[in-house]
Amino acid sequence: MSVEDFFPPFAPGEPDDNGGRSARRIPFRQIVPNLVTILAICAGMTGVRLGFEGRYELAVAMILGAALLDGIDGRIARLLKGQSRFGAEMDSLADIVNFGLAPGLILYSYILNDAGSFGWICALLFTSGCALRLARFNTMLDDPNRPKWHGAFFVGVPAPAGAGLALLPMYVGFIGPDLGVPEFTAGVSAVYLVFVGLLMSSRIPTWSGKGAGLRIPRSYAIPIILVAVLYIATLISFFWETLTLSTIAYFCSIPFSWREFQKRSRRDMDLADRRDDEATVSH
Asked: pLDDT tens across 130-144, in order?
């Protein structure tokens, strides 16, 4: 008996470094990004446990930690040249757990249960919106006709950002203001959660931070660094207040990303029409 008799091979069907299909050994660098993804799943699930135990601040921190790990696992894979289809599929499964299931359960435990069945239905809708967003993202990766500049945008709010937006009622609650009647606050939070789920499953373009090729004047470099330092210092000193303002700033950025996407789309259409006109004249 051997290990192969109990466990299937890692990423079956994918070619190895030599082009083979049934290699017994794989580079360890292909495993490292998946370990990071597993750690993200553990963080998300631990957040659910902490939420059930009433330790809500730590629960939110775990979701934010999972988002951080989600942001670096792909970069680690590209850095180590350890990308694989297996890793991409695991990343999607981790996202639905960490940013669809976990935030909905934590919010339900924190406030939505005061809205009864309505709160639970809204949590289900949020998780469903996240699942639809991730399924669409995976199918769009295989689109050969997708323009390269589309890499600068997500279609809909990405799952980690959606989880961060969804937790806004908790940020506000941690700051400490009295939000009034619990049932009313829970109902408003439930409707807000559905709104975030709709943003995730929508076709609204949002900045991705990838592939934009953004260049800035040299004279802007130092002010931008100072602003980044100021943000980090403010985040450390006034964590929940800064997250609340960051959430509002993200919402404010959506119209600008939508406008920029439309501008680039019209530019592509104008170029296509110009080529068609030139082709017609040449004939």
From this structure: 999 988 877 776 666
Output the pTM of the full model: 0.83
> pLDDT band at residue 6, thresholds of 50, 70 and 90?
low
Domain layout of the chain by residue ranges: 3-216
CATH number of 3-216: 1.20.120.1760
CA distance 22 to 15: 8
Closest C-alpha to 48, from 37, 58, 59? 59
- In angstroms, the CA 71 to CA 62 distance is 14
Tokens representing residue 60 in the block: 């939110």
Residue with tokens 């997500």: 154
Amino acid letter, 49: R
Tell me the three-class secondary structure of 173-214, residue by residue.
HHHCCCCCCHHHHHHHHHHHHHHHHHHHHCCCEEECCCCCCC
